[in-house]
Amino acid sequence: MILSIRVNGDVVQSDVEASSLKEKYDVIVVGLGTAGTFAAITAAKKGLKVIGIERQNCFGGTGTAGGVHGYYYGSGGGDYERIDSMANEMQNKGYLNAVGINPELKKYLCEQEAVKNGVEICYESILTGVYYEGKKVTGIQWFGKDGMKRAAGKVIIDCTADAQVCSLANCKLHSGRDIDGQGQPYSNIQIELCNNEIVFYHYTDCGYINQQDGKQYSDAHINSATLPNYMWDKYEENRRMLCFAPLLGFREGAFIEGEENITLEDYQNDKISDKPLFYTYSNIDNHGKDVAFESEVQQDWTVAASLWGINFSVPVPMGALLPKGIEGILTAGRCIAMDHDIAPCIRMRRSMQKCGEASAIVAFVAIQKGISLKEVPYAELAALLKETKCLDEDNNVGTQEVITHPDNTRLFKWMTNKEEIHNGLSTNKPGIAIWSAKRLGEKIKADLKSWIYDNDEHISRNSALALGLIGDVDSLPSLRRIVEERDDFLPETSRKFNQLRAHSAIYLIGKLKDRESVTLLTDIFMHPESCPNKNKIYNEFINNDEEYYFQYFSQSMMALIKIGDEHVDLRELISSILKQRVFKSEFNVVITFKGGKGEPYFLAEKIRKIVNSKVKEWNGKKSFR
Amino acid sequence: MQGIIPHYSTFICGATATAIGIASENIKDTLIVERTGLVANEFIDCYHIGSKNWNSVSHIGKNLKKELIQRNILSEVGMVHIPAVAPLLFKIIKKLGINILFITEVIEVEKVEEVYEITLHNNSGFQKITADKIIDTTSTSTIHPKFKQYTYSKSINAMLHSIEENLFPFNNSEIIENENVSFEQGRFDKEIILKYSVSNDDDWIAARHKLHSYWQNRPAFLEKWSLATIASTFDIEVKDKGPFEVDYNWTWLPSCAYENLLKALDIGVEYGEKLGGGLKV
Q1: pLDDT value for A624
Q2: Is residue B167 within 8 angstroms of chain A, CB to CB?
Q3: Which chain A residues have a beta carbon less than 8 Å from that of B101?
């Protein structure tokens, strides 16, 4: 048997005797957070012998220790609703009203539920090692109040959020976006008593770190706690601090490579599972403003069509909880097998609570039948999950437009009727029509090429965006014109984070690798004064004039890079342009994080790395197309 | 694998008020390790307000007091809104460049010749450091069992809130009915701290259950109060102030023993000054 531990960041493995694992459990749940709470409770309710290991001294994770008491989308159904109802009822008996679910009551009730069902709870304990034999995970080692302990488990459920068990068990992992590995920003929540209520929402996004690096994780506590947002000038009786949340709010970390993998591209192409354990529901809640550095799959959705705010449901299959090729282990939580692009839609707490519940049911059926996790029959899973409505077909809502957040929504299907698409393109909310046109592709190209010449500016220009999204170069003259005119029409497709039409057009020019646009893009890239915020457009995505220009800058930079990728003969010129701009000593780019007092985020170093990496790549490839 | 093992003159267990004080006098040579992500848990996170005597003798303490008053966290008569001290302590840590590793456990301490070799664990995994001396400032002598039974009392505290004014103090007779319970006024009129005594052996499950059970059956004089939040650190009282010798150059100096956060910080500064002067303590 192998014991796998981490030493100074590296995984180190050693041979150990199998007999050293004397304590034996049916299920070991590592992490009693959002998913782990319901993994442990559900497994125990099914009569399994369960132990739960948790670093904090409470259940609930982000929703309790993490200070995020309210829900952001996700859908109803699942055992968590029972606990939430109990918490809401108990709150009326002498507890201060909390926005969301009262965290003290949620902690307590989850704990009591776990105790009642016989979960052995190890608080203030940390995972320190994983045991495995061949391709099967067999147990864990942990450190707590009573020192180093170890135990065997028939099934280990990794609810650490960052796949820490999996990372020690030779599972394949991936993280972040392709260009620089960046995920989502983290937040530090300061819980307040505000106007006789417990609130948490005056928080800010604080930065990006690699939380697998112990020093970075540590420093994040200091750096976030000292942001201006948390340094109040004055504390008053009607608004005062209760505490910093003991758990920092990480939205994204590592993902496993699963037996099945959920990707945004698959979702967009209707390649979704017909054997879900549960449905998730949200928008692509990307908190970042440097969207130009995201994948084309994501930008097609959020930049070209401004669909950031469109909610949709995603079925999560069992295979997404199973690390590929490894037995004896499941994941539950935000580290399941999905890509960075779709993760912001799937990671919501309602969904992750269901994920925990579902993982326990998978474990239960496997243990009961004496079969491997992969062999668990779907029909039996589905029947069990439907008992608590963890799996509920009513949650398979497809796509929804949010008219006002959070509850005023409109269900819609992608348009297939050309007249409907034409009408949609004529409005100030063209995104659904643009995407519908993309889905039709060839079938609507001819119409779009004709509509580009329409006298109505919206029909003409939005048709150009749609045609560009389909990949047709006939859109380019119109796209260039949109950019030349710095068309700052801001659609209202999404409730926020819509993209200016010029920004969408620049993105599409890059996607189409238009060599004719190099001069146009260079002018934008080199000269901030060429893109004045004439109509004073400010919103949550564009906090100030610098951020207004940043979208022009970053999109034109990426467009130039894509053109250089395609056209080898332009690489020297484009390299020179890029270097000339970003390697000037006074070059700096500052954008702000969402929320708070607009905490600054300095991007110069990141941008230089991207440029450097691309220039090196081009220099290394001497062959011509 | 680890190449050179970092060495510190002083290793401090617990990012307590005392720890910050000690480290402020010996910044380069000191490492503080804290298992949580919070500072001065022994006062802040457990809602231990302490005495109203917020007079400080150290430079760092005086500045902190001034800022606390400016921000209305501390009144002139020593009433403190204890949670709000946290951001300012983080600010001190950042400004001075104090070396701290949060979310880091001490796994093992071994004496190796003249130094201590300390094994830590955090998200980077196991790592070793060495130190000439160890100061454990935690409330329960976390890293050595020698003083684990030194806890005098333990409570789980909660912050209560009322919408009405002038509901506190309570009659003594009302409180005496339950000897496990006591109350303290916070900074603001509508804020009091409930201290519920638990057994030293009570874990979080038992303690939370006792508190919630009490609260759901609370006496009439508490009817107009709501429970806002419960501390996530136990409030520990120890029998005596330190320092206590654990081993050669290994001291237990519980920060919670001092009358309030500012006093604990001052003690740390004083202790740190002695360390910096090379005096054996």
Answers
A1: 37
A2: no
A3: 214-215, 218
DSSP secondary structure string for all residues of B29-60? TEEEE-SSS-S-TTTTTTT----S-----SHH
Residues in B closer than 8 angstroms to A103, CB to CB, are 229
Query: What are the pLDDT digits (tens) for A526-539?
Result: 999 999 999 999 99
State how far the alpha carbon of A612 is from the alpha carbons of A281, A433, A526, A575, B274, in Å.
38, 38, 17, 9, 51
Best of A4, A5, A91, A96 to disrupt the B interface by mutation (most B CBs within 10 Å)? A96
B125:A107 CB<8 A:
no
Nearest CA in chain B to A109: B209
Positions of chain A with pLDDT under 50:
622-625
pLDDT of residue B281: 41
| Burial state string for A179-191 with b = 16 or more CB within 10 A and e = fewer than 16 | beebbbbbbbbbb
Give me the interface pTM, i.e. the ipTM: 0.96
CA angle A349, A355, A356 (to 5 degrees): 95
The verdict on a CB contact (< 8 Å) between A12 and B1 is yes
List the structure tokens of A587. 């070059």
Contact A237 B232 (CB under 8 A): no
Contacts of B6 in chain A (CB under 8 A): none
**Residue whose structure tokens are 């999905």:** A338
pLDDT recorded at residue A498? 97
User: What is the structure's pLDDT at A625?
Assistant: 36
Contact: A242, B159; criterion CB under 8 Å: yes
**Residue A320 confidence (pLDDT):** 98
Question: Which residues in chain B have their CB less than 8 angstroms from residue A124's CB?
Answer: 35
pLDDT of residue A621: 57
What stretches of A387-484 adopt beta strand conformation (E)?
Answer: 399-404, 408-412
Instruction: Give the residue ranges of DSSP H helices in A232-377.
Output: 264-268, 296-299, 343-346, 349-369
Is residue B72 left, alpha or beta, with left meaning phi > 0 and alpha meaning psi from -120 to 50? left
Closest among A163, A384, A358 to A279, alpha carbons compared: A358
Does B38 contact A at CB distance below 8 Å? yes
Between the alpha carbon of residue B280 and those of residues A540, B21, B275, the distances in Å are 57, 18, 7
pLDDT one-digit tens code per residue, B175-219: 667 889 999 999 999 999 999 999 999 999 999 999 999 999 999
- CB contact residues (below 8 A), chain B span 91-130, against chain A: 91, 93-94, 100-105, 107, 121-127
Q: Give A620: exposed, middle or buried? Use CB within 10 Å, 0-12, 13-18, 19+.
A: exposed
Instruction: Judge whether B213 is closer than 8 Å to chain A, CB to CB.
Output: no
Determine contact: B203 vs chain A, CB below 8 A.
Answer: yes
> Can you tell me the distance from the alpha carbon of A425 to that of A434, in angstroms, rounded to the nearest whole number?
7
pLDDT 10s digits, B88-123: 999 999 999 999 999 999 999 999 999 999 999 999
∠ CA A67-A69-A75, rounded to 5° = 135
Kindly tell me the number of DSSP H helices and DSSP E strands found in chain B: 6, 13
* B106 vs B121: CA distance, rounded Å: 7
Neighbouring C-beta atoms of residue A429, cutoff 10 Å: 14
Cβ-proximal residues to A573 (8 Å cutoff; 6+ apart), any chain: A518
3-class SS string, A529-581: HHCCCCCCCCCCCCCCHHHHHHHHHHHHHHHHHHHHHHCHHHHHHHHHHHHHH
Q: What is the Cα–Cα distance from B160 to A198, expressed in whole angstroms?
A: 12
- For the whole model, what pTM was predicted? 0.97
**Distance of alpha carbon A262 from alpha carbon A343, whole angstroms:** 9
Q: Which of residues 6-25 of B touch A (CB under 8 A)?
A: none
Answer yes or no: do B1 and A242 touch at CB < 8 A. no
Residue with tokens 């007091």: B65
Contact B204 A237 (CB under 8 A): no
Q: Which of A96, A148, A236 sits opposite B226 (nearest CB)?
A: A96
Task: Find which of A222, A238, A247 to mutate to test the B interface (most B CBs within 10 Å of its CB).
Answer: A222
